[in-house]
Amino acid sequence: MTETSSRLDALRARLRDAGVEGLLIPRSDEFLGEYVPPSGERLAWLTGFTGSAGLAIVLTDRAAVFTDGRYTTQLAHQTDPARWERRHMVEEPPAAWLKAHAAGRRVGYDPWLHTEAWLAKLRAESGVELVALAGNPLDAAWPDRPAPPEARARVHELRFAGASSEVKREAAAAALREAGEAACVLADPHSVAWLLNLRGGDLAHTPLLLAFAILRDDATASVFCHAPARVPPLGDGVWVGSRDALPAALRALAGQRVRLDADATPAAFAQALRGAGAEIAWGEDPVRLPRACKNAVERQGARDAHRRDGAALVRFLAWFAREARSGLLTEMSAAARLLACRREAELFQGESFPAISGSGPNAAVIHYRATPETDRRIGAEECYLLDSGGQYLDGTTDVTRTLWTGPGPAPAELRERWTRVLQGHIALATLRFPQGAAGPHLDAIARRALWDAGLDYDHGTGHGVGSFLSVHEGPAAFSRAAKPVPIRAGMILSDEPGFYLPGQYGIRIENLLLARDAEALPGQAKPFLEFETLTLAPYDRALLDVARLSPAERAWVDWYHARVLAEIGPLCDAETREWLAGACAPLG
Amino acid sequence: MTETSSRLDALRARLRDAGVEGLLIPRSDEFLGEYVPPSGERLAWLTGFTGSAGLAIVLTDRAAVFTDGRYTTQLAHQTDPARWERRHMVEEPPAAWLKAHAAGRRVGYDPWLHTEAWLAKLRAESGVELVALAGNPLDAAWPDRPAPPEARARVHELRFAGASSEVKREAAAAALREAGEAACVLADPHSVAWLLNLRGGDLAHTPLLLAFAILRDDATASVFCHAPARVPPLGDGVWVGSRDALPAALRALAGQRVRLDADATPAAFAQALRGAGAEIAWGEDPVRLPRACKNAVERQGARDAHRRDGAALVRFLAWFAREARSGLLTEMSAAARLLACRREAELFQGESFPAISGSGPNAAVIHYRATPETDRRIGAEECYLLDSGGQYLDGTTDVTRTLWTGPGPAPAELRERWTRVLQGHIALATLRFPQGAAGPHLDAIARRALWDAGLDYDHGTGHGVGSFLSVHEGPAAFSRAAKPVPIRAGMILSDEPGFYLPGQYGIRIENLLLARDAEALPGQAKPFLEFETLTLAPYDRALLDVARLSPAERAWVDWYHARVLAEIGPLCDAETREWLAGACAPLG
Fold this sequence. Notes:
2 copies of one chain form a homodimer. The first copy, chain A, is built from 19 helices and 28 strands. The radius of gyration of chain A is 25 Å and the shape is globular. With about 600 residues, chain A is an alpha+beta fold. In chain A, the strands form 9 sheets. The first copy, chain A, has a 6-stranded mixed β-sheet with strand order 12-11-10-8-13-14, with helices on both faces. Chain A has a 4-stranded mixed β-sheet with strand order 1-2-3-4, with helices on both faces. The interface of A and B includes residues 437, 438, 442, 454 and 522 of A.
């Protein structure tokens, strides 16, 4: 904390040099994503706070860090109360704090780190003058700032991507032409990766090259990244160059109509384009929806990846069933064992996110991450929650199972609650719905069984998942907080209701679902969609209260378990297969 | 059509005088509501089209009328194709038409008939210059325009309103003071009526005085309406005057901060206030939410009104059961009979909307209204849909039952579909949900039983209902198209799923629900809400496929029918009571 204290002083000295009386320091870097490389960990360097969502505001005489409910405890633990006011992002929002403490002052921001839309809202709500800075004063105050990542990038093969970069670019360029736009900025590296069939290693769990791109209406593209030599040739019409070349490329768009996505584009782009005399057309990233709607090859890749991932998970589950009561397992060692099982799977590239391995009360912490300090011995009669996933060249997985470590069935209350979570999970997995319905409209379907008992969970029911890309992918999500983007065939979404009793236990059950066109039924007047369950792993029947299930729910569990046994059984060793046959036997 | 043709010519002559090359003619009048008095029927006068949603655009050389899917047939029937292009509001929106045909021209609008938000969107999407006009050229071209309504207004008694105007005004004024606003404009006559405990008779089915008001932060209010002498004294602090006094009252707000509701306020207010040097604070009508959340007296009034309304409806149903197969009933005569039954009910003031009385294929027309031309004899073996409601001094009702006219049970397909509609209706009526959930999140709950069979209905599941006010009241609605306003205790909403097979039959089942706080269950960690069913009338079991119901659904139907019998039975004559006892007997 002495260290972060001197950093705050150093930053304040730089603010004076920059002619401002304050600075906004967000958690994201210029790619506005969930994960940042070490070179982008500005918020952590300055404040000590390492949560994945936050914002600091430094004024000359006071400073505050904001985060949301998931991280308030961590924020209090990691930051120095003598130097930082700790605030709740929603209940004590930054705009109110600015209004109270920065009225009449000039507060600076790095235009690469915020969208214009967010800045406009902050300006309107706070009444404070926000000033775009040419360089980030924090970077100047950070002497040993790590270099940006330089991982080798590689081509994502056509046998996994399913469509060539040429075909994808031509489709996106046609959308630009139809809208009368000469070009668009792709500020989201996920879009760059998908469009150009390019994968990188700049982040720990998402195979991205951190890059911006400009796509033109003639289907040519320019890519701008640090150390461009690490990028392989991407074919005719795709130029790859250094970030230094970006300003000139934006200036070259003078007089043209250029699409920017308001939710995903740093303000610096709009400012540069206006300066160059280009016309800005706010519109959706033209790649986001095609990326979300997996093509036939990506869908088959997802099925294949889930079968291999299921085999690895089932091997772990069989082992866990034998070892859980040994008293020797800890959260970290169990997660390491699962990772070892996945490592043997073909095309495995790494975890899609740090596994959440929580036992007993730790499982009630929704975003728990076991560390050497918190690592807990898994007890003999308790719930163990394991939420994990893999990156495979042909697909991304994400699966959660909650397991009972005791020898017999779990206590009645736990079974009742786990079964309600399962009922919600099944209700969504078996839903048929008409075209046009969006995630916010369907989220309640997975909650009703819990709501009936006055119970709920404080997170969305599910998020989109990429194809060997991010495990959290927009635009669709089963969440009231999400934009109502209609669910389309080819989207992959998680179905993960839960229930958490703080200090005691946590339950979550998660499969990935692939949306597909449903076969028409007699009398059907419009197109319907349904879900294909991708994830293949048994549920722990020690937690099931079978009497609570309706006949249709029982039939679905039996059908699903039979499918798991048929698809995963042949991939297992004899001992695992025997365990799996028991785990997948019809309900008694 | 010759008449409307000469009207169009007369209007065009006036456009030249006004110095514009076009005019927007919306369906609504300056109160922006669903219903308009004869003096506000500009769209119908000009075009012949009488649907409840529409817009005309007249240019010097061409003219178009726009409406939505409900009214496309009616639009084609009522308007002259030689003079009017007929367009679909959503698929061929006005902005696109303006862009194509009015580029570079000045198109006028009456600033009393549109919100600024809508005009800004139209301007942005069309690129056409829209010019505010001082007077409406159409009114000048309409020589025999009816006078504005002059119905007597009256005080809504405290025994029905439950809170005095003083108390309501003080609460709203406190909200203004907290927001630092000196006043607000109430441009919605429903808000004026509720705030001042005032009811009128300016519209056919909603007991409104068509008036604007200004509420100040000291809890005083000024009301502006045509013929103010018809308004009774409204107590200290409430001034009632003529519409002519409005400009001066707005000018008097110079230098002050004034709240306007962007969704409910004609552009003329913002233009006048800006001209006067007032500061506009866009914000929600401070009365809308208190009005939607009925107080204890309004809740009890709703229960009482529904009991009387139920008795009237049950009397009708018993009569209908005897007469349906006589071959003598028509849609209009049946609706008239129901109205006669309601007229005998205490505190009844009139229908809350024109009853939808549709038999056979007419029931598939969602907004069907029987007229002498369409009036149909009710057949012996078909579905009859009756959607109707009453205005009572203590509450507003809205109820739909679909009845089978045959002697035995309906055919299997009809029963299956009617039963799915009932299952959705029950699913919503029995929902428990946490605070914060809004209508768009819950709408799917009522659809699932239909979705399972590939069926759906193309309307929202339910709308808010006022307390002796409009039968369609915001801000909450069970609809994906509605704003996600959390449902609060005291809101009254309809629960009316349906199924329509065009050309054959239509099904809808509707009760009103009162949202209330739910008693906490063991383990419940946050507040939940539930619904109390207000409507009391049996479902027609000739349409029920009892084998499709779950045990819980069967139990609910039996519980509801027992309640109907217990509450309505004592209010009926002997013959009706005997019929009701059979209709409410436990399911076999």
